[in-house]
Specification:
CATH topology of one domain: Serine Threonine Protein Phosphatase 5, Tetratricopeptide repeat
Order of helices and strands: HHHHHHHH
Largest sheet: none
CATH class of one domain: Mainly Alpha
Strand content: under 5%
Radius of gyration: 59 Å
Shape: rod-shaped
Structural class: mainly alpha
CATH superfamily of one domain: Tetratricopeptide repeat domain
Length: 237
Amino acid sequence: MKILFILTILSTCLISQDVGYKLYKDGEIESALEYYQALIQLGNDDISREDILYNIGTIYSNMDSISEAGSIFQQAYHDSLDFSSDLSYNYGNVLYRGEQLDKSLEAYKNTLLKNPNDSDARKNYEFVKNKIKKNKNMEKQQDQNQDSKDNEEDKSDNNNSDQNKNQNENENDKENNSENNNNEDPQNESPQVGNNQNKQMQSNQSAENILNALKENEKVNKKRKEKNYSQESNKDW
């Protein structure tokens, strides 16, 4: 990572700047940050605000305080009319570590626009560009897999629904058949009853006809007897 600390010589201001760098190198991070914050509040014509913010952002970045570093570098971006390639490069690194890949790619692009010969910026630009593309392909594949899974689940649900429907229909058919067998129309038995009644009526009619015939025959015989008797009575003795 590129780090810019302003090196100065032989003046009170320049010595003060060396103090901030020395504090940082000696591990007195908080003191170094306080020193640079004081320079911003006091104002200084020998060191630009962008350079001071750059130093503060770089310290936070080396401390892995990504959120603070990003905030400082963004502030430096907004305050500067012509930011340096080093600022955009370090800002790109912080954005990448914060998983803001699109913004990181833009920062590396700005670095290359400022300094086309910056090989580190170019490598980082290509790396982040490929990672963004890879992530999009992975997301697309995941979406396709999820769609395929959803379709399989829908098919399974539909098959289960059809099976349940067919099972219910079969059960209903069985119940209906059972009810029809248990509740047959009594009229189905009526022809037998009717036939028995007809047979009985025919038998009674036949018996009555025979009885009438006997009675008629008896009358005929009686008449014959009377006629014969009358003829016998008229005989000459």
